Amino acid sequence: MSRAMFTDLYALTMGASYIREGRADRMVSCEMFTRRLPRNRRFMVVAGMREVAEALADWRFTEEDLRYLRAVPVLAKIWTPAVEERLAALRFTGDVSAMADGTVFFPDEPVLRVTAPVLEAQLLETYLLSVFNQAASVASKAARLRLAAGDGTLVEFGMRRVHPDASVSASLAAAMLGFEATSNVAAGQRFGLNLTGTMAHAFVMVHDSEIEAFRAQARLFGQNVTLLVDTYDTLRGVERAMEAAGPALGGVRLDSGDLLQLSRGARALLDSRGFQRVKIVASGDLEETRVAALRAARAPIDVYAVGTELSASADAPTLGAVYKVTQDHAAGRGVAKFSANKGTLAGVHQVYRRVDGGRMVEDVIGLEGERMDGLRPLLRPLVERGRAVGNPPALADTRAHALAGLAELTDTLKDLGAEPQPAFPVRMSAGVKQATEEARARLAAR
After folding, report:
1. I need a surface site. Which of 111, 237, 338, 392 has the fewest CB within 10 A?
2. What is d(CA 348, CA 95) in angstroms, rounded to the nearest whole number?
3. Integer Cα distance of 227 and 239 in angstroms
4. Which residues in the chain show pLDDT less than 70?
5. pLDDT score at 422
6. Is 223 exposed, middle or buried (0-12, 13-18, 19+ CB in 10 A)?
7. What Å distances lie between residue 153 and 259, 264, 294, 299, 328, CA to CA?
8. What's the CATH superfamily of 24-53+95-137+324-445?
9. What is the distance between the alpha carbons of residues 280 and 303, in angstroms, rounded to a whole number?
């Protein structure tokens, strides 16, 4: 099954109509954006664009796909040789501009723009939204955790909480925001991420005693072993870890209980026995407010391992992004929706950001090419004529870009609280307002 099959049925039925009515090659621009901030968010972070560029390089229906499609009852009614021939030859031939992975963005701002024949643009919609909504949700959560952890080390342990394919995307999104390692072996293989892991409680429980399990693990690793110490009695587990591993002990992991008090108790025990270099790893349903509270209380925790709350972005699992046509190039005009609470902007857009004193102060949604002195454009070419522009950026470069964006946030935007805060100013340029009003006037005149 090809990636082209990750679409909704109505995209195919509309596509069949475009083909049969001679409209399939009509050039349009479609843009993806969110209408509002999800729960507990002051900002969002772009992710998934690397996956989009990779997918579009090989966008096609296979013979197996077509055989299935022609047998679908709804499609069988409208399937013609022309429809099959066009879908069999389908490749993505258009252009895509997008904000770079790791870019901070806000509601109503287009994060991605597709300019292509309407058949291609329509068939892409569901796949693009699926990739972006999941990846950017995790990246936005990871950004909050990065702010909460300060200079503390973060690692990602969330693979088992989401679908395997989504887990790989989540691991990459976390790495973009400064997570230093993942437990996800598939993500390590695909993206070259650092791998990390300790042991499961089951490993302790299938040995005759806790100290026997620790000795086995210490023999396996030889040096710098991290031991999970909370299967039975946490502080007693710390003592057994020191006894079993001796100088080879590199870390102890706390996975339950009062992490503030247990980390203090563990640190005191370790330091009293000369194990000052041993790190304390904390896990167990951690999220940004708990991490921030632990740091504020000066918990002696060196590494925060986050799973469910990150990979599933538990409090805001989707950004609710949408994908709408904004320009009919064949007619030479912008188009817009004027539905109640679901209106859109007409034209081909760019997002311009003003930064002053190292802090972002304003974004402007303008027309592509509209003059905006002193503001930097955020949408960049990603795909041209169906081919990715350049090589995928190195992870180190994406991470540097993402962390630089977090550094530009104001204190209000960095606030992790749930209370409503003043919205970041995003305004429409004169050109966008004019294009949208012209679209409204054309509708009124019909």
Report:
1. 338
2. 13
3. 11
4. 418-420
5. 77
6. exposed
7. 16, 18, 13, 13, 48
8. nicotinate phosphoribosyltransferase (3.20.140.10)
9. 6
Angle at 291 between CA 271 and CA 224, to 5 degrees: 40
Return the DSSP state at 237: H
3-state SS, residue 198? coil
Buried b (16+ CB within 10 A) or exposed e, 315-350: bbeebebbbbbbbbeeeeebbbeeeeeeebbbbbbb
Pairing status of strand 333-334 against strand 322-328: antiparallel
Number of alpha carbons in the 13 Å side-chain half-sphere of residue 103:
23
Q: Render pLDDT for 252-287 as a digit per residue (tens, 0 to 9).
A: 999 999 999 999 999 999 999 999 999 999 999 999
Q: Do residues 259 and 301 make contact, with C-beta atoms less than 8 angstroms apart?
A: yes
140-311, CATH topology level: TIM Barrel (3.20.20)
pLDDT digits (tens, 9 = 90+) for 48-60: 999 999 999 999 9
Q: What share of the chain is helix, strand, coil (3-state, %, to 5)?
A: 45, 20, 40
Tell me how crowded residue 215 is: count the other CB atoms within 10 A of its CB: 16
H/E run at residue 434? helix 430-445
Q: How far is CA 363 from the centre of its chain?
A: 21
Structure tokens at 128: 């693009």
* CATH code 3.20.140.10 region(s) in the chain: 24-53+95-137+324-445
How far from the centroid of its chain's Cα atoms is residue 278's Cα? 33
Name the H helices within 363-415. Answer: 395-407, 411-414
Please give the pLDDT value at position 423.
Answer: 82
Which residues, including other chains, have CB under 8 Å from residue 92's CB and lie 6 or more apart? 56, 59, 116, 120, 124, 383, 386
pLDDT at 420 (0 to 100): 67
Q: Find the distance separating the first CA and the last CA of the chain, reported in whole Å.
A: 44
The first and second tokens of residue 379, run together, are: 């949408």
